[in-house]
Amino acid sequence: MDRNFDALVVGAGFAGAVCARALAEGGKRVLLLERRPHVGGNAYDRPDQAGILIHQYGPHIFHTNNREVFRWLSRFTPWRDYQHRVVADIPDGKGGRLRYPVPFNLTSLERAFGQQEGRRLGAKLMAAYGPEKKVTILALRQNQDQEIAALADYVYEHVFVHYTMKQWGQRPEDIDPNTTARVPVFLSRDDRYFQDACQGMPLEGYTPMFERMLNHPNITLELGADALERLDVSGPELRVDGAPFPGTVIYTGQADELFRFQYGPLPYRTLDFAFETLNRDDFQGYGTVNYTVDQDYTRITEFKHLTGQVCPGKTTIMKEYSRAYTGAPGEIPYYAIINPDNNALYDQYAALAARFPNLQLLGRLAEYKYYNMDAIAGRALELAETILTK
Ligand code: FAD
Ligand code: UDP
Predict the structure, then answer these.
(1) Model confidence over 301-311: pLDDT tens digits?
(2) Residue 303 domain-assigned?
(3) Which residues have C-beta within 8 Å of that of residue 358, sequence separation ≥ 6?
(4) Does 28 lie in the same domain as 131?
(5) 290 close to ligand 2 (CB < 6 Angstrom)
(6) For residue 335, which atom of ligand 1 is closest to its CA?
(7) What is the greatest pairwise CA distance in the chain?
(8) Could you tell me the residue range of the domain that residue 172 belongs to?
(9) 374 lies in the same domain as 251
(10) What pTM does this model have?
(11) What is the predicted pLDDT for the residue at 3?
(12) Are residues 261 and 343 located together in one domain of the fold?
């Protein structure tokens, strides 16, 4: 490796790209290696053959309460004001289909039980928990009141159990409770998926935002470059291109892969995406529709609703299927499966990394965590600040 670099950053997703830019602005010369042929990690977007902007690795909606992160990212993109709304699409029991907002809220109650009964149940829930309160499905199921318990069973059955089985291969009570807590029952008429202060989509897409972020004289970006062919952590000191490297290494790939799976592979879920372009203006009226009771796929995304792109007579949709990650070539580990056993295995890898004072694990894969984009961007900025002030 060229001795002139102060830092090696592995991966050009949110973690790596934000950190690389912040280090570069602090005067560090950064080499950024990305294995894929593009920047942006899983937030990468591009126009498809019909010219419709798609998210290649699943729908990404930006939302945050962290104004500092929002301001920082806003240096690289204007935003389209977009408030994400999701509906569950379920059989209505009479041969048709029924849709209601997810997170399940006061409107969902009325759609499910009729206006009068829905209102009565809503009032009862608000008397128990308070208006505008968010209650996790697992907490709601603990309620001793018979009617509330029956309602909790309804929501569990129609919103959570089948979707969670499809997404995780496990029941809601058997996965990390923080996961279902992301989508609580909401005692409100607010039918937005997120209530964060800042929400939106990068106006021209995520990829142009990343390209601007990485356009800095102190950043050298190599695409199609697998860092594991150059980074060696098998000995007592960290080596790059065969020589000891005293600079900082920020690694945002899988922790198990970095250490050649020596304690065994960390479990993940992967996703298969089926894209389809249809010759019509609109397919489903929403950015995302969740299939919470039937179908093999978890949800369908229709991109033009997210991006606001005007494309008369054409729309691209994507069905999303989840399954166990096997490590087969081409498979992508999207979700860490957070539980005590897997966390303990991860800790063994983290301990190996901790042997190198100049190696930092950062990001969804490297930290084996469920980070949203804003959270990992915030963490990357903090880490860069710590490195720069050392
Ligand atoms: P990644 O984006 O995975 O980037 C890691 C990068 O490192 C990849 O580009 C990879 O190719 C590269 N890499 C790995 N190993 C090597 C190597 N050896 N050499 C070189 N490069 C390497 N968050 C939200 O806030 N809102 C959403 O709506 C949202 N939707 C999501 C939907 C889906 C389907 C998924 C899976 C996630 C979603 N997220 C969302 C989370 C978001 O994707 C993550 O927060 C973000 O991508 C994390 O960034 P990262 O840099 O840690 O990881
Ligand atoms: N979930 C569910 N039904 C839904 C939406 C979510 O059961 O209609 C559960 C499911 O277990 C999912 C979790 O809540 O994995 C978190 O959902 P979220 O939409 O936050 O997941 P993401 O797609 O952002 O990873």
Answers:
(1) 999 999 999 99
(2) no
(3) 238, 245, 246, 247, 248, 249
(4) no
(5) yes
(6) 36
(7) 73
(8) 94-186
(9) yes
(10) 0.97
(11) 58
(12) yes
